[in-house]
Write a structure and sequence with these properties.
The complex is a heterodimer of chains A (307) and B (141). Chain A is an alpha/beta fold and 307 residues long. Helix content of chain A is 35%, strand content 15%. Chain A has 2 domains: 136 residues, Rossmann fold; 156 residues, Aspartate/ornithine carbamoyltransferase (Rossmann fold). Chain A contains 10 helices and 9 strands. In chain A, the strands form 2 sheets. A 5-stranded parallel sheet of chain A has the order 7-6-5-8-9. In chain A, helix 1 crosses helix 10 and helix 5 crosses helix 10. The longest helix of chain A is centred in the C-terminal third of the chain and has 20 residues. Chain B has 2 domains: 80 residues, Aspartate carbamoyltransferase regulatory subunit, N-terminal domain (Alpha-Beta Plaits, 2-Layer Sandwich), CATH 3.30.70.140; 45 residues, SH3 type barrels, CATH 2.30.30. Chain B has 3 helices and 9 strands; from the N terminus they run βαββαβββαβββ. In chain B, strands 2-3-1-4-5 form a 5-stranded antiparallel sheet, covered by helices on one side. The chains are: A alpha/beta (307), B mainly beta (141).
């Protein structure tokens, strides 16, 4: 079987994403059927940058498939501390395991690693660039909540410049029909031009930009909130100025649709008030759960395994 | 002004006026031992003014580099005083180690031994993007 990586969400066709979502739905319905699919297989989680959800969900996914896991959760506990390059570190680990999920603070690190690694590489987040498995999680959640992956208006709110989950999800949804995008952010954190030019305009998609969440709220079917990420700023003063631009509260949800679906890749700081958690439209903890199931489906696909 | 014609070598013609020194630098022509003539602001029916570079020795010209710098340049190969080949250039689809990414967050900045790979993103606007981080590099001429 030819080695497949998942570096960018566009490495998967729309049909393949549909298959992964269907497999994840089946895993949710019949988990026992999948309990031994990865018997004897090993997953390495190489996290050069801290993570809670993504690393643990990969490990939980592999364990639920009957496989085993190994790895590290910070760069200083690997040979990176001795000056080893990311390509050499990942190449070395690829000699021990069957598949690797890696996160790195530098953009493009998984792409670099995949050129030499002997096993499939999954990008579990590269700086402010891409996060394709969060996108698969988002798509599974949208599918479970809305029953479809097309014909809706989605608002992205917060840090759209460095929000890698936003970039990957915009890319994925651009290949679905009838999606309308509303980008809600301060001027400094707008969606990068390359996504506007190469994805939105090239595909003739309907999109608009605003800095007003209140103005956008009534037209949204899905609201994708994001955190302003301190670790992406070179200048702390800019972070402090921008971090509380948007805070979602029950009051701000008053003009929203009754079937709005609120998503957030988590972790949140204070951009969603805790009092919103009890609103039935809050789906972000369902997202966390779905993340494990879609990663199970992805591991199976990249290893060429079926239940 | 007279410049001797060459017997065996390369003539880079139709260089945008004023850009011949950029070509000289990108192609590392300073490292050659042979005669190199740089003609600036030569009269051109098509361009008004143009630059020309003559290299009096056979050499491999990196057409990708040249196509990236200026796809309107023509490359003439001279053998025994006669032009034996005339090559027209195009913007290459892929550039390897021609330009470096300037995005401080890109892995190629942290690990400079990696090949710097750029892919043509928009031919009309002459836009390239880093294969690692998608950062843009736009040709200005």
């Amino acid at each position: 079987m030819e080695k497949r990586n998942l570096i960018d969400i566009t490495d998967l066709t729309s049909a393949e994403i549909g298959e992964l979502v269907a497999t994840a739905e089946d895993i949710i319905a019949s988990p026992a059927k999948y309990a031994h699919v990865c018997d004897g297989k090993q997953l390495a989680t190489l996290f050069f940058e801290p993570s809670t959800r993504t690393r643990l969900s990969f490990e939980s996914a592999m364990l639920s498939l009957g496989g085993r896991t190994l790895g590290f959760s910070e760069a200083m506990s690997s040979s990176t501390a001795k000056g080893e390059t990311v390509v050499d570190t990942v190449h070395t680990v690829s000699c021990y395991v069957d598949i690797i999920a890696m996160r790195h603070p530098k953009e493009g690190a998984p792409f670099a690693a995949a050129q030499r690694a002997e096993v499939p590489i999954i990008n579990a987040g590269d700086g402010g660039h891409n996060h394709p498995t969060q996108t698969l999680t988002d798509l599974l959640t949208i599918h479970r909540e809305k029953g479809r992956l097309n014909d809706f208006t989605i608002g992205f709110c917060g840090d759209l410049k460095f929000g890698r989950t936003v970039h990957s999800l915009v890319n994925a949804l651009s290949r679905q029909s009838g999606i309308r995008f509303v980008f809600i952010s301060p001027e400094e954190l707008r969606l990068p031009d390359y996504l506007k030019e190469n994805v939105l305009e090239k595909n003739g998609l309907a999109w608009e930009e605003t800095d007003s969440l209140e103005e956008a709220m009534p037209k949204l079917d899905i609201l994708y909130m994001t955190r302003v990420q301190k670790e992406r700023f070179f200048n702390e003063a800019d972070y402090i100025r921008l971090k509380d631009t948007y805070v979602l509260t029950p009051e701000k949800l008053l003009p929203a649709k009754s079937d709005l679906c609120i998503l957030h890749p988590l972790p949140r700081v204070n951009e969603i008030a805790v009092s919103v958690d009890d609103d039935p439209r809050a789906c972000y903890f369902k997202q966390v759960k779905n993340g494990k199931f879609i990663r199970m489906a992805l591991i199976m696909k990249l290893l060429g395994l079926k239940a | 002004m007279n410049i001797d014609s060459i017997q065996n070598g390369v003539v880079l013609d139709h260089i945008q006026s004023g850009k011949s020194m950029d070509i000289y630098k990108y192609l590392h022509l300073d490292q050659l031992d042979c005669q190199v003539a740089i003609i600036k602001n030569a009269k051109s029916a098509r361009m008004g003014k143009k630059d020309i570079i003559k290299v009096d020795s056979p050499m491999e010209v990196d057409l990708d580099v040249l196509g990236y710098i200026d796809p309107n340049i023509t490359v003439n190969i001279i053998r025994s005083g006669v032009r034996t080949e005339k090559k027209h250039l195009a913007l290459p689809e892929r550039l390897v180690n021609v330009i470096r990414c300037k995005n401080p967050r890109c892995i190629t900045m942290a690990e400079p031994q990696l090949d710097a790979i750029f892919l043509l993103s928009d031919r009309e606007k002459r836009v390239y993007r880093c294969a690692y981080c998608d950062a843009e590099e736009r040709r200005s001429f």
